[in-house]
Amino acid sequence: xxxxxxxxxxxxxxxxxxxxxxxxxxxxxxxxxxxxxxxxxxxxxxxxxxxxxxxxxxxxxxxxxxxxxxxxxxxxxxxxxxxxxxxxxxxxxxxxxxxxxxxxxxxxxxxxxxxxxxxxxxxxxxxxxxxxxxxxxxxxxxxxxxxxxxxxxxxxxxxxxxxxxxxxxxxxxxxxxxxxxxxxxxxxxxxxxxxxxxxxxxxxxxxxxxxxxxxxxxxxxxxxxxxxxxxxxxxxxxxxxxxxxxxxxxxxxxxxxxxxxxxxxxxxxxxxxxxxxxxxxxxxxxxxxxxxxxxxxxxxxxxxxxxxxxxxxxxxxxxxxxxxxxxxxxxxxxxxxxxxxxxxxxxxxxxxxxxxxxxxxxxxxxxxxxxxxxxxxxxxxxxxxxxxxxxxxxxxxxxxxxxxxxxxxxxxxxxxxxxxxxxxxxxxxxxxxxxxxxxxxxxxxxxxxxxxxxxxxxxxxxxxxxxxxxxxxxxxxxxxxxxxxxxxxxxxxxxxxxxxxx
Length: 502
Known about the structure:
Layout: H1 6-13, H2 21-32, H3 41-49, H4 62-76, E1 91-96, E2 100-108, E3 114-123, H5 133-147, H6 149-152, E4 158-162, H7 178-187, E5 192-196, H8 203-209, H9 238-241, H10 252-262, H11 266-276, H12 280-284, H13 288-292, E6 297-300, E7 303-306, E8 315-317, H14 322-334, H15 343-351, E9 354-355, H16 359-368, H17 371-376, E10 398-404, E11 416-422, E12 428-433, H18 439-454, E13 459-462, H19 466-469, H20 471-480, E14 483-486, H21 496-501
Parallel strand pairs: 1-4, 4-5, 8-9, 10-13, 13-14
Antiparallel strand pairs: 1-2, 2-3, 6-7, 7-8, 10-11, 11-12
Helix pairs in contact: 1-4, 3-4, 5-7, 15-16
């Protein structure tokens, strides 16, 4: 089976009580890696999530400490999950309450015992609480199929267990709500059969959805239920809490690197000394512009933060360390989670969390020198507009011509054809030629088939064949006063008239 990493469990259980939002986010970020081992993880951390709301003052209460200890206890006794066995069928157990939904992915092992593969649960959004009971149960089923899609898609026959008997015939009902009609296209991707399982037999999912911490009647006035996106998150509270679910280790090394870099930056070191010991002597060591803006700086543990105005979210100040700044920009731009965004979006993402002078200029140079962006993305410069050929006004005033080679050899050993087309009447003249036909021979055929019968055209259209671009051919048309219109390189559709005849 799958067992949680003992080192990570030890780190979580030995973590001291958080003193501020930053420390709480760090601890939740580490605990989130093991959420699949914990039944109703989202419900356990719900009391603490209220402390991470915007504009909520930090106030660590007994219920927060109880939730903090409950998560530690739950992870310390994390069960051994079964490894997914694709040769055996999966089945899903799901349930919904008035305020949450829960589901469990399960399999039977070789000895016939029912084993848990993964737990999932989340709280309902405000709008979802207004759903009818029938739609809430369907929402739980949809949530389960989304979360376990990688295991369930393509299963020959999938069993879904629910405590709502009417779902067994929901797909065939002639009276569907608009919401159900939208969900039908999603359910059609799976081959599943719904089985009724009463509450007394559906203990696992029922407990996940009916956790007391989910119940809004049990929450304090600060414990707002987060609005989560059930389609994108692996954890019910990742987005609301601001946790990066792709990181595999706590952010302490980066924090220590930033804090250590302040010592090598005399400018920020002086600000930190003043904030830790606000005396006249430490204030006098600051420059006048810095003294005027000192109220924008603050200390968050060992990190220096900066705000633009009183309504701004504090941002971590990054000292003048090129390696440190390069590491941050790399994470926000080059890393898989960054997605190689442009300079505006990269700056917007990075400036939400960090600050250093002339950050935009720094990011602009980084993005403009990114090899992958330059190689893959389209050029920002505007391309010239397409210019169609002028429309022919009378017969044989505009002629298009082209060669066809690779045809069966005739009695004289010729394997090609020179094609002349009148762009107005669509009349065609064909002349057999050898594969080694020269520019002089091509000019003679033009005079014999076109000029002798129809006179001199005002313009001719051809591709960039060496025979048509030779000095002799160009000089001939210059003496005759005819314009030679060449097609765009590698774009034969320019001379579409002749290509269609070919």
